[in-house]
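Encode chain A's predicted structure.
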Amino acid sequence: MAGDLTDNRGRGDAAWGWPPIHPEGRKFGLIAVGISLIFLLLLDWEIVGWPLLALSAGVFAFFRDPERVVPQGDDMIVAPADGLVTLIMQVPPPVELQAPDSQGLPGLGTEPVTRISIFMSVFDVHINRAPVGGIVRRVHYIPGKFMNADLDKASEENERQHVLIERSDGRVIGCTQIAGLVARRIVPFVKPGDIVAVGQRIGLIRFGSRVDVYLPQGTDSKVLLGQRIVAGETVLAEIGKQKLIEGVSQ
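Encoded structure for chain A:
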């Protein structure tokens, strides 16, 4: 259950259950069901009604919001999204996150850092979570294109939303929600000044997308290119830890 403490020595409880549907998606699922019933019961067009009913189930599944067991540790950065690691690159942070803000609160600077890009297909959970705990310093929305989110240039050209979180030690971690070919809306759950816990839900992207995470200087990724990861559970990195990790696809 949410809020329960578990550990690696068997403490706590675990049981499988149907994941709840996030309130943001219930209206879309109910609309799809309503249209399906019109075709099935009023118009008697089964050839259309049954596929629409199946699509309704898919809509509910897209907005599922399962509980996650979030690792607790001072230096851990956890995955903000479910999906596939498609890019790990050394790049300068986004311009919008580089400089201090009008109140003098720090940005990410201009020096290159490691960016981990996580691609979410329509089959992945699309609830995004905070990679670290702290104070939300920026939520910056930028309109843009809707090209394939798997492309590197989507970080600069697609519709996107930057979130900057300052930890209690003053370090700042940035992540960017990026719309894709199908996605048409980024929905934030937080605003500047909010205090978030690591793994807390911070937003969602409707229908396929990508999330980038910018690691602090001197920090390497603990995940590998091509690895599937789980939001709020997979540890992306440990701050200040640098080590080459190799993997073999099989």
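Residues 23-62 form one domain.
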